[in-house]
Amino acid sequence: MQFTQIFSNSSSVIIYKDSLSHEFFKGEEEYVRILNGWNEMVFDAMEMPAFGVSLDSLTREQMKEGEWIEFVFDGVCEFNEMPFEKLLVKVEDSYSGFNIVRYMTDGGYHGRCFYLQLNGKDMSEFSMLIKNIKI
Description:
Elements lengths: L11 E6 L2 E6 L3 H14 L3 E3 L4 E2 L1 H7 L4 E13 L2 E10 L5 E8 L3 E2 L1 E2 L1 E4 L6 H8 L4
Antiparallel strand pairs: 1-2, 1-5, 3-10, 4-9, 5-6, 6-7, 7-8, 7-10
Helix pairs in contact: 1-3
């Protein structure tokens, strides 16, 4: 399985906007819309070595501002020997590549991240989709 296919296995997505959040569950119209936009954005993206390492307290502080998306999974998943229960991404118009922060219940947002390079695209269309979602 390619890394970009993992997101379709999520049971829900949580959208964070300046400390407010809302969870959309698999099967709901907004979930489908968000996932379709995400999959379109990451189509042909390349997984790259990540430069980022997450520290739980710093990540939680950063999540209080801006827009974020978190993919929630039923139980522990693993890719490249890196386990996770949730995957978190900062949503920014200009990002053409971004860290994907792993979350584990026993330690929060910590450890090595994943990284996707969008190959000539950026996050602008996906960012507009997220901006237009009411939470």
